[in-house]
Amino acid sequence: MRDGHPHAGFLDAALGVAIWLLLAAVCAAAGAWAARAVPFLGGRTSACAAAGGAAAVQYDGSAGGGRTVLFGFPFETITSATRRNQYMADVLNFLSAPPATNMAPIILTPPAGQLVVQGADAVLSVAAAGTAPLAYQWRFNGADLAGATQSSLARNSAQPAHSGYYQVVVSNAFGTVTSPAALLEIMLPPLQTLFLDDFDSNTAANWVVNRSSPDCRVTFNYNYAPYGIPAAPNSANGSTRGVKFEANVSLGVAAAINISPVGQSFSGDYQLRFDLWMNQNGPFPAGGNGSTQHGTAGIGTAGNRVQWTGAGSTADGYWFAADGEGQASDTSTTAINDFGAFTGTTHHSAASGVYAAGTASNARGNGNSYYAATFPGGQTAPAVQAQSGALAVGTIGSVSYTHLTLPTIYSV
Questions:
Q1: 7 sits in which H/E element
Q2: Buried b / exposed e along 4-40 (16+ C-beta atoms within 10 A)
Q3: How many CB atoms lie within 10 A of CB 114?
Q4: What is the pTM assigned to this prediction?
Q5: What distance in Å separates the CA atoms of residue 353 and residue 355, rounded to the nearest whole number?
Q6: How many whole angstroms separate alpha carbon 104 and alpha carbon 173?
Q7: Going along 286-383, which residue ranges are E strands?
Q8: 104-131: per-residue pLDDT in tens?
Q9: pLDDT 10s digits, 149-179
């Protein structure tokens, strides 16, 4: 009872919360900003006039974050000076109460998700309140991180292995609270072009040509459109210019030719990417005379070697070879496989584990299911070439470009 009138009150300054209002039915709002009201003796005449008018007050606050007083009505609706003074006394008592001393931790600002470039620093932080001292323990994908016991967590020079979900557990003598999970994503830096040649002009001066025999030639800024070959997928503005390689032009003896950029040297984490088209003699799938040819590409070479395994080879670096037509049958066990990986002059075996096709005995042949799925076969040469038949499965030649991540080279 308060002055003979029923009321309800709750005041706990230690918890930082106070609510006080009269017990009565909610009635029509009184005042422009009141959503509802409760009767209170001394209030302005309203729909609850029989009860003496409408008025209500709610106090609310939280320790560590300051206390707040919320009025659920315009204060001037209390027409009784005595009642207004009574309210204000309660408010002042609440605001002047000592700080809370038994408050469990609460999360004020949880850690936020971030997208960070590999190698940059990532910092996750949390803001929390509660009775001191507060203890912190960071978690990564649900497991505690050793030594991560501050309100912030730094991932310096962030790497892909740091990608995942982070939470922090905040605790004190009165309780524990766990923050929502924040996703930290580490992305690779944007690709930067270190060297590029689209062969849309004659750039022969920028390349060293290495050949095993004079019976080989290379033509820069070659227009391959008359062969019915479409523009390469990464060709700018539909250009049909490229670089053309020819080996064993007239002598009927196996030969090899390759090019390396002049004055270029690369290290670190980089990729070699190019579009490749291979033409060969039909009829297919077996191919005609001199139809067996391989496109090669590699990295780590001195730039002055022929990348092949023929007589007198001094091949270096790491390089790869792929056959254009596959022959009439799988060539896994022949001396010249459809697919080959090399370190210098060493031809890696099928069981070496370096092939995406696995370690099966046919990991170097076009009949392997990996190559068959990647290159379904059945391709026919452009009509203007007047070739007959279709290519076997697992072969890269004719009618479809092969975009490889391994200088931009078109082989015709």
A1: strand 7-12
A2: eeeeeeeeebeebbbebbbebeebebbbeebeebbbb
A3: 17
A4: 0.55
A5: 6
A6: 7
A7: 294-299, 318-323, 339-343, 346-347
A8: 999 999 999 999 999 999 999 999 999 9
A9: 999 999 999 999 999 999 999 999 999 999 9
